Structures
1.
Amino acid sequence: MRDAAGMAVTELAAAIASGELSAVEVTRATLARIAARDGVTHAYLHVDSEGALQAAAQVDRARAQGEKLGVLAGVPIGIKDCMCTRGLPTTCASKILEGYVPPYDAHVVERVRAAGGVIVGKLNMDEFAMGSSNENSAYGTARNPWDSARTPGGSSGGAAAATAEGLAGATLGSDTGGSVRQPASYCGVTAIKPTYGRVSRYGLIAFASSLDQVGPIARNVRDAARMLGVIAGHDPRDATSVTRPVDDYEAECGKDVRGLRVGVVKGATDRGCDPAVVEAFARTQKQLTALGCELVEVELPHQEHALAVYYIIAPAEASSNLARFDGMRYGLRVNGDDLRDTYARTRGAGFGPEVKRRIMLGTYALSAGYYDAFYLKAQKVRTLIKRDFTQAFSRCDVLITPTAPTAAFKFGEKSGDPMSMYMQDIFTLPPSLAGIPAVSVPCGLSPDGLPIGLQICAPELEEKRLVRIGHAFETAIAWNHRPPRFS
Amino acid sequence: MAEYETVIGLEVHAQLTTKSKLFCGCSIEFGAPPNTHVCPVCLGLPGSLPVVNAGAVERAMRAALALGCTVREHSVFARKNYFYPDLAKNYQISQYELPLNENGRLVVEVEGTTREVIIQRIHLEEDAAKNIHGAGSGESTLVDYNRAGTALMEIVSGPDLRSSSEAEEYLKRLREILMCLGVNDGNLEEGSFRCDANVSIRPVGQKKLGTRCELKNINSFRFVRKAIDYEVARQITVVSGGGTIRQETRTWNETQGKTLPMRSKEEAMDYRYFPDPDLPALAVTPEAIEAARAALPELPEAKRARYLAELGLTAADASVLTGHPEIARYFEASVAALLARANKLTRDAAGKRVANFVQSEVLRYAKADGLRVELPVTSDHVAELLALVESGEISGKQAKSVLADVMASGKSPAKVVAEQGLSQVSDTAAIEAAAREVLAANAPNVALYKAGKTNVMGFFVGQVMKAMKGAGNPRLVNEVLQKLLSEAP
Ligand SMILES: [Zn+2]
């Protein structure tokens, strides 16, 4: 039997559909690999062996009966712990939701199940998706499979680490300001942040509602495209869901990219980028030229404000979104002397320091007398950032930047300094604020042997372009690096 | 002592008559077992999202257009943030800046003076859950989320009312309009029409508004008057005593007959309103607005004017009959059916007859429950019954007993009359036969009559009617008796 851990989602699905592999043996192999390796990586917060084996057996039965199988039939899938899974714990890596079991599946989880995907478990993350290193998980941090002394990135660190180490065929993460792209970059895998509204947020526990999007993390672009095809599409339960029909993303793999105009942001790597990242980015431009792409220099004049805008809007929305965690209806409750005291004790004990910091920031930004100066102004600048992209896309078809200014850093390196941690997101924040799609694909290794990511952005609902160029690039550089301990 | 003018503005929360809640598909049925009409959305479970109920938007728009408001093509839902267990998300989705509707008016009349009240805004918002204090072990509070998320519209008036009677009149007229539109069931007991009042006083002639107090818990028309009257007197006492009014929220305590302080302005919460990122701006097309405007029904005020002009009603009658949309419909259907049956009647006469009969007889047995009214008989039966009176087949007095039998049996009035042989005998031969017998048997009275004691006529009529078991047409009986008495030697 082939080693399922090394196989792409599309290969696995084909092997299971043809009968070469059974879904149950693939699931068993994945569970065994998790048992052997996740003690170190700690990508999973909860592994559902029983549920996964049952789902796999169902796929095998369906195949035996000659039923038509879904595009993910039998493929082991991990789900970031901020997406509701019926009957499975969903904690957002927070103490406040310890033991919480949702009564319903998130839209994306329904879609994965309907496509035959086998849900293996729930993945580690920064608490409520707030963080860039996974160090904010209340249940212990996930580690980078390339170097366990380093962060897998965040907030979808568990998802990226599990994908990189073959602890799932592919995973679903969520991205608010870079939370699938940055960890994908640190772990040498691919992640797509779809257009805001392309994927329903129903059942995704909100961090910042106007920014949150679920996105796939996979070991190659074709797999990510397949996953996106499964989760994208209109959902009447999400009022911000887009109605436009879903494109055939996978069909973009292998298409020619000659003549494609690639925008390079002027001075993109001037600010705080590691030399290894600067070098990889320069090499990438040459490789794209070699593929026949035309490089165009573009400007995003308001980009420098993205960090400030993001750290007003996201915490403001979060302060309101997280108000419901009060110990009254579900999750942790610490009884106090009266109602107010119970609220204070519950939230005091349930939330970690970064979550509290952002709730306070957001509460302040929305307060009477500060609203206009902070929240309203941030919204106006957000509009300008969005307009920058619209203008840039009149001159290019896609736009590239590094995904993050550095490769994976060591634990503790930035955890004492929130600002330097926040700087990890400077490239991923602008597309999030603009609501446009972006992909992170590996573009090389640092001298330390750590992966570096390339971010490609496209105009609204043009995920097809990301797949086309991402796949062409990945093929051109023959990316097949795996973490040292992979096999 | 200075003279003071009362200034009142009202905020009405009217529950919309949608089948489901404002942001989810749960039923809004009243009185269901606690926490049975709930789902992830109205329980605010993590990951759930709101989706606006189009029926609620349409109803609020209907109300707004009837009150002359401008409907905004793009309005915005906002979050009002505060912690309380009756709020599943610890924020309420409401409209703050950019509400759906603005700038309407409602004219009220009290004792001959009219007052134009500006409707500042009508916006949509979700209701909170219901806290049941002292439940269970006695110490605890239980929360019933059945009501959580119910669609409300808040109707905010300007500070344009000048007395508690004007306030009461405004509320009555507003409630009547909302019920006529079918957007609110007007049920004060079940809390589907609730009111808060902002009350202040100022010296007569002063332009600047005085410091206001917001009165809560005044959920009946009677309480509104009592609470406002109490509050005005309280404020006058404070100010005339040299004191100043503190801006605060006060609650009406019915047992003590007082308004009591709840919280002061300093304690007022900062709700940190901001546009709800889960809900895109609410878009209403100009076509939808015009379609809703075109579909507005005749409003109570126009109905009253028409009843006065066309159906000969008094203002008092018109007011009663337009007070509930079902009763107005019933009244008009009865008039139309009566005109169809008794084609010699004028509209005016038919209107009067139906108005009198419905008010004095039918409404006594009517049971109103929100927008539904259980009426004892159909409008067709009312018309049939009044047509029988009109043709002289039964007397007005008999009509009442026939009504009772129709109510009891469900049979048509004509059938009841036929079965009980109540039809008045208009056959002069039969009456004459009976009359002759009566006169023959009462010769001394005939003599008295001839001698000028004409008041014995009543006795003869009574005897004839008795002989005919009450079925004789009284007018004919009279005529026949007079004829026979004048003929007799
Ligand atoms: Zn519900």
2.
Amino acid sequence: MPTVSMTVNGQAVSGEVEDRTLLVEFIRENLNLTGTHVGCDTSQCGACVVHVNGDSMKSCTMLAMQANGAEVTTIEGLAQGGEMHPMQQAFHDNHGLQCGFCTPGMLMSAIDLVAKNPDPDETTIREQLEGNICRCTGYHNIVKAVQQAAKTMGG
Amino acid sequence: MYNFNFQSASSLDDAAAKLAAAEDGTVIAGGQTLLPVLKQRLANPSDVVDLSGIADLKGIKAGADSVTIGAMVTHAEVAGSSDVPAALRAVAEGIGDPQVRNRGTLGGSVANNDPAADYPAALLGLGATITTNQRDIAADDFFTGLFETALNDGEIIKSVTFPNATKAAYAKFPNPASRYAMVGVFVAQAADGVRVAVTGATECAHRGPKLEAALSGNWSADALDGISIPPEHLNSDIHASAEYRAHLVVVMAKRAVAAAG
Ligand SMILES: Cc1cc2nc3c(=O)[nH]c(=O)nc-3n(C[C@H](O)[C@H](O)[C@H](O)COP(=O)(O)OP(=O)(O)OC[C@H]3O[C@@H](n4cnc5c(N)ncnc54)[C@H](O)[C@@H]3O)c2cc1C
């Protein structure tokens, strides 16, 4: 079995995987970082989104071997020193979640969105969250949360 | 997913050699189509050869009258590049969602030739040339059928060269769930005249000779008013009937001409 090595949330990690092991399986099963969720497993729902070398990607549609040598950030890597990331705080403040299942992927996509569009309008937010499906909130409070976070992240 | 032997290629020659040595090898680019296919066990390759380490397949080069885009350039990179004409940037920006655009590549989309894919329409509409590790292939000769292309076994796309057009635009009616094109139409005033390419309507993207003839005399949406597309050979599925797609072809062509100005 091949060995894969990468940096996850700032820590160098490596492990034995099958060639076919998905990145999300490596994250959840080898590293026990179960905050990254598998919703659909068919590249549609975005619950598994993580950052790979700074860009948001669906970790269910990537082999662990394709992330060999990469810098990966998961939901567990957002809070720093016990302080929530501004995007997490904004979801909390705006009730941007109900059941919470889509939330890790939603946050990872939203952070990438704001990094690339520092002052997004509502249309941009809705378009750029196209790859994340939430069945609870109707997206309304998620959009509000991203708008709030964009202000705090920029400032 | 059945297991396979994952290999990284360091150069085009290395990738070709690894494919040739494999019992039943395939290349992987962004994996946004291949991995879903493998998960469904629709394919069972012995070897999967990763192209991401090949420097030759990366980068966007603007020439005097064309732009050449490497096969491994992602949709997000095309969408964000000031070297790429606006109509082509818009095609890339309209593919799937941001996470798919961050991994999916030009070469993967072109090689896959999905009947509802966006890039094939842009390649046909601009009269692009596909450069492989073996030869150059004109877009007009490349897309041969349902998920079928002119690529030989083991042939790898290196880059695609898009000639500049005087005017060009793409209009897509996305399937609201998948974002793939129900119908997409790319129109261009190209060096060799008016070109119109339609995707989503039939087994693969194709030129629209009737639409081209009408627009050659009169480059305006009105020129397409009387045209009707026969629905006989058009795709029909739970998303849209053949008649509806036939209607959409003309509507999207008009929108594209209006957008091109
Ligand atoms: C949720 C979702 C939504 C999508 N929406 C759209 C959409 O709206 N419009 C659209 O057009 N597409 C859409 N796609 C498809 C997307 O554009 C894919 O990225 C693309 O079709 C394949 O590119 P890839 O780099 O991921 O290729 P891969 O999946 O890695 O490969 C696809 C095929 O091409 C072959 N291949 C790859 N690179 C080369 C090469 N250089 N030379 C020869 N063969 C090669 C592989 O062997 C494989 O058979 C969507 C995909 C997903 C998952």
